[in-house]
Amino acid sequence: MTTVALPQRVVALPSVVQLGLVRGVAELKQFSRNKEAVIFSLGFPALMLILLGSIFNSNENQFGASSSQVFAASMIAYGIVSTAFITMGVGISLDREDGTLKRLRGTPLTAPSYFIGKLIMVAVCVVAEVVIMLAVGMLVFDMTLPSEASRWVTFAWLLVLSLIACTLCGIAASSIAKSGRSAGVVLNVPSVALQFLSGIFVHPITALPAWMLGLSSIFPVKWMGQGFRSVFLPDSMTATEAAGSWEHGTTALVLAAWCVIGLVLALMTFRWTDRA
Length: 276
Fold this sequence. Notes:
Helices cover 69% and strands 0% of the residues. The chain is mainly alpha-helical and 276 residues long. The protein has one domain. The longest helix is centred in the N-terminal third of the chain and has 31 residues, at 67-97.
């Protein structure tokens, strides 16, 4: 009797992007169930904006915008750094410490897919956070939204590049902290320092010493703040910028470079467990 071999069905494994999308949905569900994290992550940057904008409030100056409106535009960068860099770094440190990453390593999920999942979660949070901060700027500090389509195009690529750069740098920075409990302190130090160096909490930015302006130009935060000011403030405000212009080309190049640097660092330093 002749045995006929039946053809075997080959089942293709999900792609990196497909796995990332699935992981992104899981990340969003997990984040939304933590009500405290949702409230503080989305609300704290807006609270900081209200405090700083109220403390340093002044009437419209000779260049066409009040200090509060400048802060309302600049601190969008602060909100992105807070969510994409700090929250990301702390979250991955906690995932590593409680064994979540160790369990995920035993699944088909790859590191790039895990990164995509985190990026999806951060993107949703950042968009919600930006909406809240723009609402605060409009309702509390009389900031007006731009009517020109070109400004919204600038806003779109700024948001995308800033989000990717900060998220990838946050993934890389998560390996610095020795535990999830210390991650918040470890990641807040460079974050807060860069905010001051980059003039996010200062108006005008030309009030900073020359060495600070030079040092901050290396990092993305300075360009993020300057870019968002270019979207929501009148062009006359370029007089308060260090270069006297918005420098959109340089901003795009620096942020794109940090996306590449962040990806390389994330792939080089990412660990599934506490031990390398």
